[in-house]
Amino acid sequence: GAVVSQHPSRVICKSGTSVKIECRSLDFQATTMFWYRQFPKQSLMLMATSNEGSKATYEQGVEKDKFLINHASLTLSTLTVTSAHPEDSSFYICSARRQGGEAFFGQGTRLTVV
Amino acid sequence: QQQVKQSPQSLIVQKGGISIINCAYENTAFDYFPWYQQFPGKGPALLIAIRPDVSEKKEGRFTISFNKSAKQFSLHIMDSQPGDSATYFCAAGRETSGSRLTFGEGTQLTVNP
Fold first, then answer.
1. Any idea what DSSP says for residue A88?
2. Contact list, B43 vs chain A (CB under 8 Å)
3. Is B19 exposed, middle or buried (0-12, 13-18, 19+ CB in 10 A)?
4. Could you give the CA distance from residue B30 to residue B51 in angstroms, rounded to a whole number?
5. A6 inside 8 A of chain B by CB
6. pLDDT tens for each residue of B25-75
7. What's chain A's Rg over C-alpha atoms?
8. Phi, psi torsion values for B84, nearest 5 degrees
9. Which of A22, A55, B13, B85 has minimal CB crowding within 10 Å?
């Protein structure tokens, strides 16, 4: 099946620093990718929709200046958590949908801000 | 209109039994209904999906039943195994690749040996 690769799987950073998470669709082109945040034992919360070649669309309550999204190519979207704080610690997951509708998820990134 | 309600929140089944998870949606424009399986620390994996032109779809031990008039769909796991223990999410949305999916709250399934 289609594969979406996310990197890194785990990252620990200090408060105030920035962290970049990459999401790649390996065998299909994705004009749209989605970024989610998931808290323990909860569902996926959509943060933003990443559109290739244009600005991302952020969900209500998500700070666009804190969570920078870049979708520079049809196979790569990046999420940068800027000036990270402990409350940003979470599990971040990207997703891409291919023609036909199937949505595939990356492996997720466990971010810990200390 | 965008909500997807999933039940039960948790489910315990004996090995060999049938696990049943239910979802209900509101938006009649939705035409794509996938189920995902998620293990701790991993991203969700697509399990099976259905479109509203059929009432049932089966893949191995996994079956989706779809009731368009009731706006409900369910996942049946036959001959449940301890390795099926995971969190299951239903989702609903439009089939187009650029549209978002709306997810249910998740069901924590435990299959006892």
1. G
2. 4, 6, 93, 105-108
3. buried
4. 9
5. yes
6. 999 999 999 999 999 999 999 999 999 999 999 999 999 999 999 999 999
7. 13
8. -80, -10
9. A55
CA end-to-end span of chain A? 37
Q: How far apart are CA B8 and CA B30, in angstroms?
A: 22
Q: Are strands A4-7 and A103-105 parallel, antiparallel or unpaired?
A: unpaired
- Would you give the end-to-end CA distance of chain B in angstroms? 40
Q: Residue type for B28, please?
A: T
- Predicted confidence at residue A101, as pLDDT, reads 81
- Determine the pLDDT at residue B1: 58
Sign of the alpha-carbon dihedral angle for A27, B52, B23, B19? negative
Exposed / middle / buried, residue A61 (Cβ in 10 Å: 0-12, 13-18, 19+): exposed
In the structure encoding, which two tokens stand for residue B5, read together?
Answer: 């309600």
User: Please, are residues B106 and A39 in contact by the beta-carbon 8 Å criterion?
Assistant: no
Provide the 3-class DSSP secondary structure of residue B83: helix
Q: Which residues contact B3 (CB under 8 A, 6 or more apart)?
A: B25, B26, B102
Report the C-alpha gap between B49 and B35 in whole angstroms.
6
Say yes or no: B101 contacts chain A, CB-CB below 8 A: yes
